């Protein structure tokens, strides 16, 4: 099959460029140990308690999961003190992002809005779904200009994505500003859903007040996305969830493939919600590591952007090597971080907070390289 007749929106897709894998680098450079600080994964790995749960539930892998994931919905409703009818669960929050587009938007008619740069899944899924992406540049300090974002939005815009804390910068807007934007959005485009992506909110200094979900002030035209990939350490199991307004979740469940969340993922997620000790330990090690890395990078002359997430964006000192060169030199030393060329930020790098020894190895490698 020559595939000459594929839709243009599919033919023009680039392959997703993820962080490099540990095995690739280990083989390429013939290294015994490789440290990965590229994909904002949990520095403590997978909780030992959850490993036990997954092993204990392994015999049930021959069963289909229960459609609608009612037990996890129940547990999440309890966790957030909200009505379980508002909850959507997906194979990663990526699935929810994609399905919201398919549920709320008509191809070639509707648009989505987001900042530039932002999490790449929003514009990529928009393209796949035949939707225009309206983009508003971040301010030069990577903070959000909500008024400018609002100007990009009109009656055709059905979804507006705001990431807080933001990826790749770590910037976290004040919750009052997000709420004010939601209010203005409801006037300008009543049909547009504000999607607040809180993938990294657990790492923010005062999540209880910084998150509109946690503080119970979620605007009526807003949804919140959360994930088990970061603070819960389950990125490989693919579990995300959303809190959606009105009866949108009921359409979500009708549109979602019935078994997209696998049975082991569901069991692990339910157990993770009760694994307080692991989550607290994660948040503690991330906050300490963030401080350690920011101080260490600043000491060797890097500019480090303030981050409320489990990663830091930084720029090398003037007159030193390029970001791409630094990235390659780190690889040769067995440390994988993230280049930001795909975010259109070729002079910047992003490093995920590792555990204590990984952070130390990274700073020592950077000192040697610069
Ligand atoms: C990591 C991340 C997610 C989580 O995606 P999953 O599909 O749940 O793993 C969502 N949004 C942003 C901005 C992220 O960086």
Description:
With 370 residues, this protein is α/β, with parallel strands linked by helices. The chain has 14 helices and 13 strands. It has helices at 8-11, 22-29, 48-57, 70-80, 93-104, 121-128, 146-151, 175-188, 207-210, 248-255, 263-274, 276-299, 323-332, 356-369; strands at residues 35-36, 87-90, 111-116, 132-137, 157-163, 193-197, 222-227, 240-243, 303-304, 311-315, 335-336, 338-339, 348-352. The strands form 3 sheets. Strands 2-8-7-6-5-3-4 form a 7-stranded mixed β-sheet, sandwiched between helices. α12 packs parallel to α14 (356-369). The chain is globular. The termini are far apart. The mean pLDDT is 96. Pyridoxal-5'-phosphate (PLP) binds next to α5.
List the helices and strands and how they pair.
Blueprint: H1 8-11, H2 22-29, E1 35-36, H3 48-57, H4 70-80, E2 87-90, H5 93-104, E3 111-116, H6 121-128, E4 132-137, H7 146-151, E5 157-163, H8 175-188, E6 193-197, H9 207-210, E7 222-227, E8 240-243, H10 248-255, H11 263-274, H12 276-299, E9 303-304, E10 311-315, H13 323-332, E11 335-336, E12 338-339, E13 348-352, H14 356-369
Parallel strand pairs: 1-11, 3-4, 3-5, 5-6, 6-7
Antiparallel strand pairs: 2-8, 7-8, 9-10, 10-13, 12-13
Helix pairs in contact: 3-11, 4-11, 5-6, 12-14
The chain binds pyridoxal-5'-phosphate.
């Amino acid at each position: 099959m020559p595939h000459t007749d594929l839709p243009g929106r599919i033919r023009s897709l680039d392959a997703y460029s993820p962080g490099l894998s540990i095995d690739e680098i280990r083989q390429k450079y013939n290294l015994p140990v490789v440290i990965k600080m590229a994909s904002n994964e949990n520095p403590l790995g997978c909780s030992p308690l959850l490993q036990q749960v997954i092993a204990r539930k392994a015999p049930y892998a021959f069963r289909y999961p229960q459609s609608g994931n009612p037990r996890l919905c129940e547990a999440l409703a309890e966790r957030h003190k909200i009505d379980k009818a508002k909850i959507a669960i997906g194979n990663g929050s990526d699935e929810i992002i994609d399905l919201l587009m398919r549920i709320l938007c008509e191809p070639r008619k509707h648009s989505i809005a987001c900042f530039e740069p932002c999490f790449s899944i929003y514009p990529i899924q928009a393209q796949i779904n035949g939707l225009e992406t309206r983009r508003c540049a971040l301010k030069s300090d990577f903070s959000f200009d909500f008024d400018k974002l609002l100007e990009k939005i009109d009656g055709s815009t059905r979804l507006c994505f705001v990431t807080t804390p933001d990826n790749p910068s770590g910037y976290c807007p004040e919750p009052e500003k997000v709420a004010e934007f939601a209010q203005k959005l409801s006037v300008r485009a009543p049909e547009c859903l504000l999607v607040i992506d809180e993938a990294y909110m657990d790492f923010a200094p005062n999540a209880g007040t910084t998150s509109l979900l946690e503080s119970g002030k979620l605007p009526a035209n807003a949804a919140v996305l959360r994930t088990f990939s970061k603070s819960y350490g389950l990125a490989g199991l693919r579990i995300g969830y959303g809190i959606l307004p009105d009866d949108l979740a009921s359409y979500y469940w009708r549109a979602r493939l019935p078994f997209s969340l696998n049975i082991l993922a569901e069991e692990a997620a339910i157990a993770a919600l009760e694994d307080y000790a692991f989550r607290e330990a994660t948040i503690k090690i991330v906050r300490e590591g963030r401080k350690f890395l920011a101080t260490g990078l600043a000491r060797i002359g890097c500019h480090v952007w303030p981050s409320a997430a489990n990663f830091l964006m930084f720029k090398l000192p003037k007159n030193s090597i390029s970001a791409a060169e630094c990235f390659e030199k780190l690889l040769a030393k067995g440390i994988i971080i993230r280049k930001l060329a795909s975010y259109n930020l070729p002079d910047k790098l992003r490093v995920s907070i590792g555990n204590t020894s990984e952070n130390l190895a990274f700073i020592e490698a950077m000192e040697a390289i610069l």
